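Milestone 3.1: sequence recovery, worked example.
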C-alpha cells in the first residue's frame, strides 16, 4: 500500500514536471480574461464576476481597441506586455502616470499595486490625460453616461474644463457638440480620448464655412489644464474675412486676434464700413452709405457695433433687412445685388457698386420750395458749402443749407443746417445765430448772410426770408439789404461805412439845412439853377419824362445814379428805390416800380463787395459857367453839349473810375477825379470842386 501511494505521487510529479512547461508556453491572455471567440485580449466587462464567461466588472473594452495586443495594456499596467501565466501573484499593478500623463495618476489613491479580489470596490482615476485630468467616472460605470462634458467643457470654459480661450464667443455662432468640427476633427471614436496628451491638438477648418481654408499659429501640445496654455491666431478663415468670398469663392487673406484676447470690433474682419476696393473682387458701395449698419442690416445689428442675431452674421450670405424709417426690396447676386423701391433713393432702384447721380433719387435741384431760386443744380454736392454761381444762375451747393455730413443724407429726414463751425466755404459767412422757424414750405430762415445787409459779422443787419414755398413781394432788393442800403454809417472808411444814402444837417447855398444825400438819382438833381433865373421858379425841374430836360428822368440829358453806376457787373437794371419819407422814394412818383435785375449772379451774394463802374457817357444837367467849365472841368474830359442852361443842354464825360477796397475810396469822373472815401459825412462842395 505504501508503495502504491509513492508510485501515484511519482506519476503526478512527472505530469507536472514536464507537460506543465508546454502548457505555460501555449496559454494566451485571452484564455483567462479575454475571449477566444472572437479572439480578444481585452478583459471581458460584465456587471458581476461571471465564472462561465470569465467576465468581471470594469471598463477595459471601452478603453482599448478590439483585438488589442498585450502591449496596449502597458498604458495602465506596466510590464503587462511580457506577462506569462506566472504573473498571477494576487496583486494588480497600476502605472503612476497612466497613459504617460504629466501628473501622478492614482487609482483609488494607489499609484503602484493593490490587492486583487473577486469582489472589488471599484474607484476612479485622477489626473489622467485621457480624461483631461479630471476625476474619472467609477471604473465599470455605464459607458453611455460618459460624454464630452465628462472630461472637458462644451465648450471649454477654463480651469478643469479646458482653456476657455474664445470658445464662448464662437459657440454663440456654432452651437452644439456637432459644431466643434468647425475648427476640430470630428472625434467619434475613443482614440480621441486615449491619445489626449500624447498628440497635438487637432485644429483644422475642413467643415463649412471655411471648407478647408485656414490655419492656426499657436502651439498644439499644451492643451491640458496642468499645462501653460499659449494661444495663437487663426489666419485666412472665412469667418474672419471681409466676406468677399461669397462672390469669388476665394477667401481673402486675414488674421484674427490672438485666441482668448477678447471680442473683435467690426473692423477686425471686414472694416467698419467694409473698405475693400469695389469690384476687386466684389462691388462695394459701403463708403457712400455712411449711416448706421442697422439701416440696411437691421436683422443683424441694431446699432452697428453689436450683433443682434448671429444666424444672420458669418453665414455666407448678404442679409439685408431695412431698419427703422427705411424700406427697400433686395435681390441677391453674388456680386452685390440690386435694391428697388429704396426709400432713401426716392423709391428708385440702385445696383450695388454702381455710381448713382443725385438725379437718380430726386430732381436736381428738387422742384419744390425755393430750390430753383438758389441753384440750377449744376455741380450740386450735398457735402459741399461752396458757391459756384455763374452769370446766368445761382449755384449754392447743398451744404449751404443742409449738413455737409453725408451720414445725414438719404436718411429719410430733411435736415437743415445753416451754421457749422467747421465750414470753410460760403456757409462760413453765417454765425451761430443762424436758424429757422417753421417746417416744409412754411420754413423761414433767420440771421443768414445771404439775406442780410452784407456787412461784416457783428454789425450785419439781417432780414427774414420769405417762406420757403413763397417769394419776395414788391421791392426784392429791399427784402435783404435795403434799396438803397440805409444802415447807419460807421464813419469814413470803416467796415460799417455807408454812403448809399444819408441824411444830414449840412451847409447849403441856402444856409444850413437837413438834406437827403447819397449816390442816388443824379448830380445836384434838386438844386440846379436856371439861367436866366425864373421869378416863379429859379430851379430847373427836378424830374420829368424823356425830352423834358429835367434834372432826373430825361436820360438824354441826365444819367440816373443807381446800383448799376458802381456795380455795373452785378446789376444792369436798377430797381426803383424805396426809401419812404425821403426824396429818394421812387414810389412817390412812380406808381409801377421797376424791379431790379441781377446781370451776373456770380457777383451777387458772394461774400464780397464787387465794385465795377459803368461804361459809356455820364451826363449831367449841373452845368458850370463857361469860364469855370473851361478851366476846371473840360480838362478832365468833359464835353459841353447844346449850349448852356437850355432845356436840351448837358455836360458829359466817358465814365471812368477806380476803387481801392482796402481804403474804401474811389476816384471817379462824377467826383471830377477827386479822391473820395466811402462813408465821409463831412464831404462838401470843395470835395469835388477843388478849384473853386
Amino acid at each position: 500500500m505504501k508503495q502504491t501511494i509513492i508510485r501515484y505521487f511519482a506519476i503526478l510529479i512527472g505530469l507536472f514536471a514536464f507537460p506543465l512547461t508546454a502548457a505555460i508556453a501555449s496559454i494566451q491572455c485571452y484564455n483567462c480574461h479575454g475571449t477566444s471567440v472572437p479572439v480578444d485580449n481585452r478583459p471581458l466587462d460584465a456587471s458581476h464576476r461571471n465564472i462561465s464567461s470569465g467576465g468581471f466588472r470594469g471598463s477595459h473594452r471601452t478603453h482599448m481597441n478590439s483585438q488589442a495586443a498585450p502591449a496596449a495594456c502597458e498604458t495602465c499596467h506596466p510590464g503587462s506586455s511580457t506577462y506569462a501565466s506566472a504573473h498571477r501573484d494576487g496583486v494588480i499593478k497600476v502605472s503612476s502616470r497612466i497613459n504617460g500623463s504629466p501628473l501622478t495618476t492614482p487609482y483609488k489613491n494607489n499609484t503602484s499595486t493593490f490587492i486583487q479580489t473577486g469582489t472589488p470596490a471599484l474607484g476612479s482615476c485622477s489626473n489622467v490625460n485621457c480624461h483631461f485630468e479630471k476625476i474619472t467616472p467609477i471604473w465599470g460605470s455605464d459607458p453611455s453616461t460618459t460624454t464630452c462634458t465628462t472630461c472637458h467643457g462644451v465648450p471649454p470654459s477654463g480651469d478643469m474644463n479646458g482653456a476657455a480661450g474664445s470658445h464662448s464667443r464662437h459657440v454663440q455662432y456654432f452651437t452644439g457638440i456637432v459644431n466643434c468640427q468647425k475648427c476640430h476633427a470630428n472625434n467619434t471614436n475613443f482614440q480621441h480620448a486615449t491619445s489626449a496628451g500624447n498628440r497635438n491638438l487637432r485644429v483644422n477648418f475642413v467643415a463649412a464655412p471655411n471648407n478647408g481654408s485656414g490655419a492656426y499659429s499657436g502651439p498644439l501640445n499644451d492643451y491640458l489644464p496642468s499645462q501653460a496654455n499659449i494661444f495663437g491666431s487663426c489666419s485666412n478663415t472665412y469667418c474672419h474675412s471681409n466676406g468677399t468670398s461669397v462672390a469669388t469663392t476665394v477667401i481673402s487673406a486675414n488674421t484674427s486676434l490672438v485666441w482668448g484676447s477678447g471680442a473683435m470690433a467690426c473692423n477686425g474682419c471686414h472694416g467698419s464700413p467694409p473698405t475693400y476696393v469695389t469690384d476687386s473682387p466684389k462691388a462695394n458701395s459701403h463708403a457712400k452709405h455712411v449711416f448706421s449698419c442697422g439701416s440696411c442690416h437691421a436683422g443683424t445689428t441694431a446699432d452697428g457695433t453689436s450683433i443682434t442675431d448671429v444666424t444672420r452674421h458669418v453665414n455666407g450670405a448678404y442679409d439685408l433687412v431695412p431698419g427703422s424709417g427705411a424700406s427697400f426690396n433686395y435681390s441677391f447676386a453674388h456680386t452685390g445685388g440690386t435694391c428697388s423701391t429704396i426709400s432713401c433713393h426716392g423709391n428708385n432702384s440702385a445696383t450695388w457698386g454702381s455710381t448713382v447721380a443725385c438725379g437718380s433719387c430726386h430732381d436736381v435741384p428738387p422742384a419744390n420750395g425755393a430750390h430753383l431760386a438758389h441753384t440750377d443744380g449744376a455741380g450740386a454736392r450735398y457735402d459741399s458749402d461752396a458757391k459756384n454761381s455763374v452769370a446766368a444762375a445761382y449755384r449754392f451747393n447743398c451744404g449751404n443749407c443742409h449738413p455737409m455730413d453725408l451720414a445725414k443724407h438719404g436718411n429719410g429726414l430733411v435736415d437743415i443746417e445753416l451754421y457749422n463751425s467747421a465750414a470753410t466755404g460760403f456757409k462760413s459767412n453765417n454765425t451761430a445765430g443762424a436758424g429757422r422757424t417753421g417746417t416744409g414750405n412754411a420754413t423761414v430762415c433767420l440771421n443768414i448772410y445771404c439775406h442780410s445787409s452784407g456787412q461784416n459779422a457783428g454789425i450785419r443787419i439781417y432780414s427774414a426770408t420769405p417762406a420757403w414755398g413763397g417769394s419776395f413781394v414788391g421791392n426784392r432788393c429791399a427784402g435783404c439789404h435795403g434799396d438803397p442800403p440805409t444802415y447807419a454809417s460807421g464813419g469814413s472808411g470803416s467796415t460799417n461805412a455807408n454812403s448809399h444814402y444819408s441824411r444830414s444837417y449840412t451847409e447849403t447855398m441856402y444856409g444850413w439845412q437837413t438834406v437827403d444825400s447819397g449816390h442816388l438819382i443824379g448830380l445836384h438833381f434838386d438844386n440846379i439853377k436856371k439861367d436866366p433865373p425864373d421869378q416863379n421858379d429859379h430851379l430847373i425841374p427836378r424830374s420829368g419824362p424823356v425830352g423834358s430836360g429835367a434834372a432826373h428822368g430825361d436820360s438824354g440829358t441826365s444819367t440816373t445814379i443807381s446800383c448799376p453806376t458802381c456795380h455795373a457787373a452785378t446789376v444792369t437794371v436798377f430797381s426803383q428805390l424805396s426809401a419812404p419819407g425821403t426824396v429818394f422814394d421812387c414810389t412817390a412818383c412812380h406808381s409801377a416800380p421797376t424791379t431790379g435785375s441781377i446781370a451776373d449772379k456770380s457777383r451777387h451774394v458772394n461774400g464780397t463787395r464787387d465794385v465795377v463802374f459803368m461804361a459809356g457817357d455820364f451826363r449831367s444837367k449841373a452845368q458850370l459857367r463857361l469860364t469855370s467849365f473851361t478851366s476846371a472841368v473840360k480838362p478832365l474830359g468833359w464835353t459841353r453839349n447844346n449850349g448852356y442852361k437850355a432845356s436840351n443842354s448837358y455836360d458829359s464825360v466817358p465814365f471812368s473810375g477806380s476803387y481801392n477796397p482796402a481804403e474804401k475810396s474811389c476816384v471817379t469822373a462824377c467826383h471830377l477825379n477827386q479822391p473820395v472815401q466811402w462813408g465821409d459825412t463831412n464831404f462838401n462842395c470843395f470835395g469835388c470842386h477843388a478849384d473853386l
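The longest helix spans residues 2-17. The longest strand covers residues 501-508.
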